[in-house]
Amino acid sequence: MIYFIEIQASIMKRYPAPLSLTTWVTLVGAAQSAVFTMIVEHNLSSWRIGLNIHLFSILYGGIVIAGFIIYIQLWCIEKKGPVFVTVFNPLSTILVAIFAYFVFGEKLYLGR
């Protein structure tokens, strides 16, 4: 992840359009995920998605949330540099655990 943010910082110097860069990063990530999933998951029935909440949650998580996160990272890289962004990466794991505890009622265990 650290190398990815350093690459983003060098790209931002030459390509200062964060919205289109966010689109490209998200599309390449989706393509890589699809190829990896095709290698791992051979059952074609798991690829079928109906026009229901599953499709909308995938689109929302993949387009809106991932795009927003990458855009915020690019903005922070532009303003403060790549070190500032990588410092807060461990904090995001802690925030996800706290959010899951309070919103979804997941149990937290020490050490995992």
UniProtKB/TrEMBL annotation:
Annotated localization: Membrane
Enumerate the transmembrane spans: 49-71, 83-104
* GO terms of molecular function: transmembrane transporter activity
Q: Does the keyword rRNA-binding apply?
A: no
**Superkingdom in the source lineage:** Eukaryota
Record's InterPro entries?
Answer: EamA_dom, EmrE-like, WAT1-related
Keyword tRNA processing assigned to the entry: answer is: no
Q: Which family does it belong to?
A: Belongs to the drug/metabolite transporter (DMT) superfamily. Plant drug/metabolite exporter (P-DME) (TC 2.A.7.4) family.
Question: What name has this protein been given in UniProt?
Answer: WAT1-related protein
Species in which this protein is naturally found = Lupinus albus (White lupine)
